[in-house]
Amino acid sequence: MTNDKTIDGNAGATGRASILFIPVNYNSYAFLSNYLRSISAALARCSSAERPSVDVCIADNSTRRKPFALNGYEGLNVELRQLGNEGYLPAAISILNEKDATAYDLVIISNVDVTLAPDFFTELLQAPAAKGTAWLAPSIWSTLEKKDMNPKLLHRYAAGKLRQLKLIFSLPPLYALYRWLSGRKKSAASQCADGESIYAGHGSFIILTREFFAAVGKLHYPVFLFCEEIHLAELARNAALRVEYRPRIRVTDQEHASTGQMPLARYCKYNRQAISYILKTWYE
């Protein structure tokens, strides 16, 4: 990246890229602190000439609130918004509704049980998103499943497949078997080259471009949890924008700091609701 470019390839007045992180926290303050420290540490690896401007606005869905210090994270401008338990993407959207997403080169929506690789910003800055790109899908290494969770989906679901998944989620024991079998599959990363277009990235760490927000405007997703990837992928597809797999940009996901606390029956209920919304919105 040259000094007259911002991270999505647009000319910038200062030559510095601007990034907004929106971590969504649910009773996971220790994870949140580790997450912020990893952003600060990765930022410190950048040269002063290329170091981006980084804002962090925490969407705090916690039901057991604890004092949380917002200072001590060098290079970061950190805010916290206390919300009701609005769900994952709806909480992030409530932050975006306060801000102008197009004022940033990139907006990153994520869980808090994630840490950035030390060279995260270095890799991000070296290859800005090309024109026509909505979403950069990084390598998300799962410590639980021991594989890259991206690409999440190489291709768009057929409506029949979504209806089948909805049926599976209607029977929690059947879903438990399905999850076990799915967990044994290899990552799709071996089928996908660096920079290749995919249908959707994984929802635990979503990197959206200014061009995405300029095209789609304000987001709306009235679903508590799940299928966020499909909804965003459909918005990008509808705007004729691409989702790009970028494995050199790396994060580690310790997974399920929030959803791991959820009873199986509720987990299945939220997935059924999400799939119903996706089918009604994008397939009917």
Q: What percent of residues are in strands?
A: 15-25%
Provide the low-confidence segments as ranges.
1-6, 9-13
Structural class: alpha/beta
On the 0 to 100 scale, the average pLDDT is: 91
Global Rg: 18 Å
Encode the helix/strand succession as letters.
EHEEHEEHEEHHEEHHEH
Task: Work out the helix count.
Answer: 8
Straight-line N-to-C gap: 42 Å
- Biggest sheet character: 10 strands, mixed
The helix content, as a percent range, equals: 25-40%
Overall morphology:
globular
Number of strands: 10
Describe this structure in words.
The chain has 284 residues and is an alpha/beta fold. It is 33% helix and 22% strand. It has 8 helices and 10 strands. Strands 1, 2, 3, 4, 5, 6, 7, 8, 9 and 10 form a 10-stranded mixed sheet that branches. Strand 1 (18-25), helix 1 and strand 2 form a beta-alpha-beta unit. The longest helix is centred in the last third of the chain and has 20 residues, at 264-283. The radius of gyration is 18 Å and the shape is globular. The protein starts with 17 loop residues before the first strand and ends with a helix.
